[in-house]
Every structure is written in structure tokens, then in C-alpha cells.
């Protein structure tokens, strides 16, 4: 092994009824992200820049549950969350309750790079975003470069102020499809599982397809269905540096103020000198298991290889019955994944030319 490697995911826990055309669309999006990341890594990009770049790509495309196309709260609004972590120095940034930032992962990076904190939420995060988006100091680009950000970050998707924090109205994130699915969820009094399934699989009156018992629980309480389409990316660059980023809109019909695993360092995201990990699935179970850190700790303390560590975390610990998926890379250029759900949208690529996208086992 050795050289760069990259993996992306679009959520674990895929409804087996997902139409073939949507499966193909998901694979095309993941493959496009891999190609963009591979091109950047071949040009010498650093891991932290690539994970931000690709999660931005996934946030901007409405297919998965992050950025535009995020799941809606019970009030019909969008509250997003994201995190990013740089393995070599274990610096990290995270945000929750984001309602106006086009790319939450970039705000998380600005928290890491340009604030004294690691995590900002709700109004504090929004205020910080306004500061970043409106800061017109002509020396800002110099500050970015002095902080070690590469041309890929500054040149790809940054606003005219050089920040990458673009503010939009909350309506930007809301799609007609999600409004329809929120209505169905409310009629079913449910938190929705794979809400991207075509609406002809369930009637407006919420037929059997919406009310079957999945056996999934959150904190010991049964829920009808669950929405896991979080996005994430992990990268090891040509120097052996690892980074991870994760972003989500959370659960369809969730309570306002709910925070999942995605912005929690050590739960949904983790990176160190050994590896980088991004998780997806049942957030409450991932939080309890500190799943991302668990993979890294198993490698560090038990001496297991990357895939073995993932298998141990997912299949032997069993996550207290929770359903989850993991993608990871190691400093040695390994790439691995695992899940205990019906499927996981994922893709990976390595320097030796290997590239793969998949959904099912």
C-alpha cells in the first residue's frame, strides 16, 4: 500500500425499494466526486482541502441529505450540521443548527482555522458565518495562504471575499420533494427513513409502505423509519496526511434543535496520524459508541489493520443494535468501509488506479 486514497459516502441504510434510476444517479454523483478528488490529489492537493472540496460538492447537489436537499425539521425548516478534522495536528471544526450557510462544511473549516473554538452552534455559528462572509479585509487572502490553505481551497467555490462562506435564505435548501415527504411523515407521526424513495411507493394517506415496523430504535424508543443519508469524505494525501469531513441535514421531521453524530468529533468524524473516519447511520447509536474514534483507537491500541478495525467496531461491538456505516483511510494509503445496514452509498479510489462505487453488500 501507499500513496493517496479517497472514500466518499452518501448514507447508510438504503431502502431496498429505491428505484434503479435513483441508484444509478447516486453512483454517478459519487463517481464524479471521486474523479474531482483524484485530479486534485494527483496535482498535490492536501487531504484537508480535498475533503472540504468534495463535501461541498455533495452539499451543493440536492441528491443526498446535506446542504441543498437537506431533511426538514418538524417546523418545515432546515437545520444543518457538519464537521471537519485534520489528522496531522488533530485540529477540528464543527457547526450545528446552520440555516443560512450554503456549505456548512466550509463554515466548520473556518471555525477550525479562524476561531479560538472547535464547535459553534445555532445563533453563535450564524453570527460567525456573517462575520466571515462580510469580512472585506484586503489581507484576507494572505491570511488564508499563511494559514496553509492551498490554491484548491481558495480557487474552488470561494466568494469574492475569499472565504467560501456564502449566505443564502433558508428556502434555498428546501426542495418540493422534501416538502411532500415531510407532509407524509407528519401524517404518519414518524421520523422518516429513506425519504428519497419515489412517492408512488406510498400514498398521500400514508399507506402500508409508510407504516411497517423496522425494528429500529432511538435511545430505546421505536421509530417508524429513519433518514440516514448523511454525506462524508475521508482522504489520505501523498504525504500520508489524513483528513475527514461529514455533513448532514439530519432526520426528516426531527425536533428543532436535535443534534446528531455528524458534527461530533469522535462520533461522526475523526482523523489522526493513523487514519481518518467518517460515519453515517443511526446518529444516536453512533454517538453512544463514539464510532469514528473507536475505529482509530482499535488500530492504535489493538494493532489491527484498518479493515479489521472497522469490522470489529461494526460487527462485533454491534452498536447496541444500531445501524451504521463507516468509510476510512489510513496513512499507508489503505481504504476501507463497513456497514451493518441494508446498504451504504459509497465510493473509493486509490493512487494505483482502483475506483469503485457501490450501494449493496
UniProtKB/TrEMBL annotation:
Binding-site residues, substrate: 258-261, 280-283
Record CDD domains: Asparaginase_2 (cd04701)
Pfam families documented for this protein: Asparaginase_2
Site feature Cleavage, where: 229-230
Recorded superkingdom: Eukaryota
First-level EC class: hydrolase
GO biological process entries: proteolysis
Active site (UniProt): 230
Annotated keywords: Autocatalytic cleavage, Hydrolase, Protease
Reactions accelerated catalytically: Cleavage of a beta-linked Asp residue from the N-terminus of a polypeptide
EC number per UniProt: 3.4.19.5
Protein name: beta-aspartyl-peptidase
